[in-house]
Amino acid sequence: MSSASVDTKSVAGSSQSIEKRKVDPNVLAAIQRATPPKIKHLRPMLRLILFQLYFFPTSFIAIPLYMLRCIIPYFRLNKNWSFISAVYILVVRRVMRNLIRFGVQPIVPRKGGLRDRNTLVATIVGCLNLSGPGGSVVLAKENVKALKLNATHGRPDKVWIPPAGPEYLDGILAVKTGPSDRRRIVTDDYTGPPLLEAKWLKWSVRALWFTHKPHVVPSQLGAKNKPNRPVICYFHGGAGVTFNAGDLHMGQNLAKNFARTAGVDIFSVDYNLAPFAPSPVQLYQALSAYLHLLNDFGYSPDQIYIGGDSHGSWMTLQLERYLRSYKHLLFADPDNFKIPGLVLLSPWIAPQDLSFKSREANVGTDIIDLSYESWGVAAQGLHKLPYPITDPWNTHSNKTPAELAAMPPCFIANGGGETLLDEGQHFANLLRKAKNLPTSTSNQRVVLSPGELNCKVVHHVYPHQVHDYFTVDTEISKAVKVYKQIGTWIKFTRTLL
């Protein structure tokens, strides 16, 4: 690791002191000079309007044709699907392909902006912007006064995450001092120029709480009692370029049902999308969210699970690598730091690696197209980084056996008919081999018990399901079965700590 002089300072929310790195004065000066990123409104609005003008009128023709096609099972994309599922998945495929065609993205949420207000207008505008209503906590009347909620921003299920300070940043997240910065950062896991622009340390992102019961108030900042339940720091999917943590699909279909069924609170991070936030900005925002749970909400590392679906799984694995690689900057007791587990739903493991046969074999029946991945890779600027796309920061299947062996327990779930099936299975087997566990792929039923070592790496495959079926309205009943098993798995992993 790169060396740096340190001084000692107590970290908020921690009973122990941590050696806090002294930051390069040039970096501090750059942060002081920086102004927050500027949001573009006109182009996203025009793209959304064009999408709506095309999609809705043509749907009056397309959907009846889909219904006629799916009457006979032979003509469905998958004859094992029900009529309703077959029609709906065709509609979702059409939505996804047109989102890609028109480059539709929601306007970036901003702290204090219109959609941040606790009003009906804000909710309507959020839904029109494809960013949804947000979290799912329903307060009982007697709790409102007790919480002393702010009258304007009175929702306890929405949190604005402060940007992590420069003392936590090194390696891939080293901060630029300016356009002419010629420094070379040298650490065990990254060697190259600093990548993170100082302006992002002036920018907050939001997160939404989805609690295990609707009337349970999530942890509040400044609470006297520390949280006593596990939490999942969660990252939604969308190739890094689409969807929001609070929209109907990622928020209500996935996060809400996941929390209620698995019995675990979910802190879903509404990280910024590319190209507004190019790589490694999303990793930086993921780190900020994790540290917010740790230092401000009072969670301990062994309470914080990390998870995500699709691109969110890719972010999960990036964050896990950063926490493990730079734990000396982040934790008072780095030698005993542990992540209790990772949840990877339809994980994106290896960008643009076409060696996995399911990518070509299943694309004809899946809801996503390979151009979706290409859009995400280009927008994030992964090919412009000073390391190849095959680097373990990007392609997680290229991690060394030693690194894979050091990873926490993982629950990996794939649909049996999705394009990313093979890479999920490949990654699970890499983990099992590195950890000296039996190599096998489970079926729909996963039995969890403390004596079953294979449950340190679970790979659940739900037959005939599409990519990220957890977000698809007609497939929620299948997703719920997986959430229940994840809830059991979480209880199991608690016994490993």
Automatic annotation (TrEMBL):
Gene3D superfamilies assigned: alpha/beta hydrolase
Q: Which residues form a coiled coil?
A: none
Q: Keyword Hydrolase on this protein?
A: yes
Q: Tell me which residues make up the Alpha/beta hydrolase fold-3 domain.
A: 233-436
The keyword Hydrolase is annotated on this UniProt entry: yes
Q: Which residues cross the membrane?
A: 48-68
Keywords of the record, alphabetical order, are: Hydrolase, Membrane, Transmembrane, Transmembrane helix
- Superkingdom of origin organism: Eukaryota
Q: Which organism is it from?
A: Kalmanozyma brasiliensis (strain GHG001)
**Gene Ontology molecular function, alphabetical:** hydrolase activity
Q: What is this protein called?
A: Alpha/beta hydrolase fold-3 domain-containing protein
